[in-house]
């Protein structure tokens, strides 16, 4: 099976990506991203970890109900309860996969699982046997694979393949691997395991040493893996996972070297990147490969001159091939509801009901009154804001007035609702944002600590909306609040209240790797 030249792209933005502190998404946001992943034509969408929480279960089920072309997958620990939950969530999916895992490194087995290797071996085999009752498409991961003993790995992996695992995913869980060693290990495992050809081999790398993409590619070229697990923008725990856009564009741009086929529609990459960034509040650094704002910007005179004569002088990929089309002015103040609805459809935004379309259209009209040109990014932000406001309406922004003048103390008056009751609070601070937060906190008294604050211009020009992320922390929980508005203090207030709403919602998840 591994001789095939088809490289399977397995996206885990909605599972491993979501494990990034503060990146949790609502069910509707996950469905929106899943639809974009399908447009991108990823082969497998890991939609979540069904047993982690009722919210995860519902999101997987909703994704399984709408995704038709990509395989939908749920993670599960190697036990019957988790696997049954995954299978139940995946029921509506035309193509489904159960991905089950158990740690195999001495450190994880002793310290985390407190299990003997023999027990881990038996549990891994039993899990695959059980999963086979639900689907034929089963993936197995020996967690912390890159720090596991090779003889033990050979035994476990041979055992799970014999039970019917169809994909063997080799994880570098802690981002410890280096490319040559990682690739060679997979090559040797495939060589030593007698039934290794009965499964497709896969790689799953974390980016702690900045080597996730290099390790994944070495797993493919040296190791013979034919599936890469990755996330949009490299989102994921700690330093993140292998970035989808980077491996895909490496394989495509250097097809002379890799000689592999991909099913991906690369023109959907930038839209996916923007959507994930907007929904999670994780900004993309400007110099990020492929999807950073500067990835195709040529500033130096020599480069610009070269580009004008022949773009290949300094450009190895075409911006339009990854979806950097010129940003379109889509709509304006005179645009009607039908034009707005059609644009939503073109952007892959599927609002649940006509009431939701009406609410979004009302917000669009409000925005168009204040901003003459409305870009695609504005519409995506507007829908995101709308979804954030639905997720939990304990706090809701109503209005804001603020005053700042050189030489005087900035002040703000914020009107907002808390538990359905409206409050008007005033505060002062070192700047207008500080004053706004102090005003809200006079009533909210949340005890939250602001640990990160970013503002991004959504589109070009001074007319652009500001998109604000506020990362809040309280009692060990970290959440990202996001908000957008042409007035950046209003955007900040919306972001702050969206963060408080997330802290207010008590839904806790199990982290699969704990
Ligand atoms: O990093 C890891 O080991 C994982 C597994 C569950 C595949 O995410
Ligand atoms: Zn992982």
TrEMBL record:
Report the residue ranges that make up the Pyruvate carboxyltransferase domain in this protein.
Answer: 7-270
Q: What is this protein called?
A: 2-isopropylmalate synthase
Could you cite one Gene Ontology molecular function of this protein? manganese ion binding
Q: Region annotation Regulatory domain: residue ranges? A: 396-514
> What are the names of the required cofactors?
Mn(2+)
In terms of Gene3D superfamilies, this protein maps to: 1.10.238.260, 3.30.160.270, Aldolase class I
- Origin organism is Massilia cavernae
Question: Which amino acids does the record list as binding Mn(2+)?
Answer: 16, 204, 206, 241
EC class of the enzyme, as a word: transferase
Reaction catalysis annotation? 3-methyl-2-oxobutanoate + acetyl-CoA + H2O = (2S)-2-isopropylmalate + CoA + H(+)
Cellular component (GO) terms are: cytosol
Q: Which gene encodes it?
A: leuA
| PANTHER family for this protein | 2-ISOPROPYLMALATE SYNTHASE 1, CHLOROPLASTIC-RELATED, HOMOCITRATE SYNTHASE-RELATED
């Amino acid at each position: 099976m591994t001789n095939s030249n088809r490289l399977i792209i397995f996206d885990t933005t909605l599972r491993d990506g979501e494990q990034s502190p503060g990146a949790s998404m609502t069910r509707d946001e996950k469905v929106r991203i899943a639809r974009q992943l399908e447009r991108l034509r990823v082969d497998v969408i890991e939609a979540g970890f069904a047993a982690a929480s009722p919210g995860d279960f519902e999101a997987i089920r909703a994704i399984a109900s709408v995704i038709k072309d990509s395989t939908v997958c749920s993670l599960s620990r190697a036990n019957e309860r988790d696997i049954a939950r995954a299978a139940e969530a995946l029921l509506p999916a035309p193509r489904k996969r159960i991905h089950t895992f158990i740690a195999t490194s001495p450190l994880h087995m002793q310290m985390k699982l407190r299990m003997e290797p023999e027990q881990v071996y038996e549990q891994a085999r039993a899990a695959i046997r059980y999963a086979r009752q639900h689907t034929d498409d089963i993936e197995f991961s020996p967690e912390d694979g890159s720090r596991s003993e090779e003889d033990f790995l050979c035994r476990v992996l041979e055992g799970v393949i014999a039970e019917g695992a169809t994909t063997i995913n080799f994880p570098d869980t802690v981002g410890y691997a280096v490319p040559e060693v990682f690739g060679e290990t997979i090559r040797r495992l495939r060589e030593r395991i007698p039934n290794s050809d009965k499964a497709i081999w896969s790689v799953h790398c974390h980016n702690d040493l900045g080597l996730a993409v290099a390790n994944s590619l070495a797993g493919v070229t040296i190791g013979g893996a034919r599936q890469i697990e990755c996330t949009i923008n490299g989102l994921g725990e700690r330093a993140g996972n292998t970035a989808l856009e980077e491996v895909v564009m490496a394989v495509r741009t250097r097809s002379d070297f890799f000689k592999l086929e991909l099913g991906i529609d690369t023109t959907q990459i930038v839209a996916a990147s923007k959507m994930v960034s907007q929904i999670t509040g994780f900004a993309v650094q400007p110099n990020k490969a492929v999807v950073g704002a500067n990835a195709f910007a040529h500033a130096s005179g020599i480069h610009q001159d070269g580009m004008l004569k022949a773009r290949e002088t300094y450009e190895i990929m075409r911006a339009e091939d990854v979806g950097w089309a010129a940003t379109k002015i889509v709509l304006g103040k005179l645009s009607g509801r039908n034009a707005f609805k059609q644009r939503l459809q073109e952007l892959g935004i599927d609002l649940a009901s006509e009431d939701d379309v009406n609410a979004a259209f009302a917000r669009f009209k409000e925005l168009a009154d204040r901003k003459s040109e409305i870009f695609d990014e504005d519409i995506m932000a507007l829908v995101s804001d709308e979804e954030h406001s639905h997720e939990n309406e304990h706090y809701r922004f109503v209005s804001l007035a603020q005053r700042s003048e050189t030489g005087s103390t900035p002040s703000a008056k914020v009107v907002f609702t808390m538990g359905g009751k409206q409050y008007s609070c005033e505060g002062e601070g070192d700047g207008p944002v500080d004053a706004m937060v102090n005003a809200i906190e006079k009533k909210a008294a949340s005890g939250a600590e602001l640990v990160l604050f970013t503002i991004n211009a959504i589109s070009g020009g001074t007319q652009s909306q500001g998109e604000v992320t506020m990362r809040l922390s309280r009692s060990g929980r970290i959440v990202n609040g996001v908000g957008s508005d042409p007035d950046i203090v209003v955007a900040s207030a919306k972001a702050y209240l969206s963060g408080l709403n997330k802290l207010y919602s008590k839904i806790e998840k199990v982290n699969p790797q704990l």
